[in-house]
Specification:
Strand content: 5-15%
Number of strands: 6
Number of helices: 20
Strand order of the largest sheet: 1-3-4-6-5
Shape: globular
Structural class: alpha+beta
Helix content: 55-70%
Distance between the termini: 69 Å
Radius of gyration: 25 Å
Order of helices and strands: HHHEEEEHEHEHHHHHHHHHHHHHHH
Amino acid sequence: MSDRGVIVLAVAVWLGALRPLDLPWLVPAVLVCVALVLRRPAALVVSAALLSACLAGAAWSGLATVPRGAVVGPAVLVRDPSPVGGAVRVELRFEGRHAEAWASGEAATALRQRLAGEVVAVRGRWRPLSERSRRWLHPRHVVARIDVSSVEVVGEGSVAARAANGLRRTLVRGAGGLPVERRSLLLGVVLGDDREQPEELVDDFRAAGLSHLTAVSGSNLAFVLALAGPVLRRLGLRRRWVVTLCLLAAFGLLTRWEPSVLRAGAMATLACTTATIGRPTSRLRLLALAVAGVVLLDPLLVHAAGFQLSVGATAGIALLARPLGRRLPEVLAVTLAAQLGVAPVAIPLFGGLPLASLPANLLAVPVAAPLTAWGLTGGVVAGVLGPPLDGLLHVPTSLMTAWLAGVARWGAGLGAAEVAAVLVLGLAAWWVGSGRWSWRWDRTASTSPPGPS
């Protein structure tokens, strides 16, 4: 199938997920397999769209029945608990159903230090979700709310969950000596954990268009793979493929499989596999295949804002970064391409795009990469060694997080005229620094007639 056909397939799967059908999914699944074997692209697109619609119908039907009555028994934490005032909110899985649980008092104290993947015994009652909550909780498969009255820790979960949580606790322990603002930024950039971030900092990052830095995305995954690059390059193709997939799985567990991580992980898996078999492919094709596969696995993701923004940004970079790079500096071209890609999603959701996003990202993104790399290496060592060495190891962390916070505050205070002035001055500096100004001047001088002697 051509690249254009794969893009059509991804769009068809996405549209099918938006139009759920209450039909069995087995028949369209068989049709997809037949179309693949017979190599019929048109039939594959139609049957995949039908399969996506049937899977979406099954997912939504599972959310239609709201459980009621008492809740008593073991539950697995799906996400890390978040403090909300004096209470604690957490998503958990009880008897195969996802719920948003709220606890206060002693129950909140027992939940506050738990992490995703751990098992607790809960007592409480089911409550239906409000209309407003359904809009953003249903895409996470949350069917109802649980008012928790008591909690008892039962176990630490699977081996993988224990390993991921152990690493997270080590990172948090190593950053314990940092001020709250800088510690929360470190955990946000490295792990996507923004639970400790002060409201003022959240507002600054949102106004400056930098919120994506504290939400784990494909760029974080790219930094991790680049960090492991020296080791991976020493391995043979098959071992490199296996180790890369293990790294992707470990990163997903560590960052809680956020929608953007699912998209990035799917693309990285496809890229690694095609490179291993000697058939590397374009980024746009990888994106289309990843979107089609992930949406078929979970059709409700098409309603998740994080997934929509991730797909939009990646599509913008894949389509526009190279053409824009012919006229603009590479960093500015990639940033502008990503902003144009997320615009169709961000404008309806958030009412627009922050004007300060371009200059703020140009200043902040180059620092986010070394902060991620150092946070995952020096941060772990700091957590293992403890004080006083942890403070010394986190001196670079403190400087980089202070820079990010300062850029966010600066960007949040910029007006339209100031943004335009910053961009014009920046482009002028790049034009002169790149040598284009001097090249044009030299060319003019060489072609002009000689003056009188």
